[in-house]
Fold this protein.
Amino acid sequence: MKKSFKNKYLVVANWKDSIESFGDAKKDFDLVKKIKFNIKKAELVICPPVVFLSELARNYRGKNIVFGSQNISITNKKPCTGEVSVAELKNLDVEYVIIGHSERRSLGESNEIISKKIAVSIDNKLTPILCVGEIVRDKYGEYLKDVERQLIEGLSEINKKDLNKVIVAYEPVFAIGKGHKSLTTYEIHQMVIFIKKILVSRFNKKVAMEVPIIYGGSVDEENSSDILSESEVQGILIGRAGTNPYSLKEIIRQIK
Ligand code: PGA
């Protein structure tokens, strides 16, 4: 599905594997359901652990929240033991899939696998959120080549006409997780420009400029508003703060 985000911010909460029981997931989700916001200004995507996704999505009757999966199978050929199949996700009305998160890359998910998952998602009308980001920075700018490779190889299976169905999440790995700090809004903005430049040279200007770029890495209620207003991003991908319904509420409340 082609998602249109003109004048709208995307807020993606990646719950990772932070919740261990369905009871806790439901409790948090019940609080998130109560968050009031203008759906013309923001799209709130909750990505619960996949074992809880089905129960939460099946019972959700509201309109404000949309669901995302933290993973998808590389293929829709069956059988495929242990994978999160496209058919399962579609039956749950899941709309987004996070692909290529650094925690999955560190387990061996390659750009080649990621590119296939992007293609499977698009073929099945799910919106892929392609995560890219360097592990560390060096003063010679080599890290830019890593991000470029992740973009070019990760998008190698799709053609120009499908580029506007993809969301790119820029997440520098050194900014993710406890004890780390978000990039400054200036640094994020520089990377947004860099990513757009790569997409323009690989595809073309018109489609490339339409790709929403979001930022992730230690986003919370203290910095989200500045990031959204100063970095030229179209949204945020939140880990820890997204698992706290009170932080999430505050992040969304600040969206103007
Ligand atoms: P964090 O995680 O917000 O806890 O840093 C971000 C992510 O992993 O997407």
Notes: The first helix runs from residue 22 to 33.
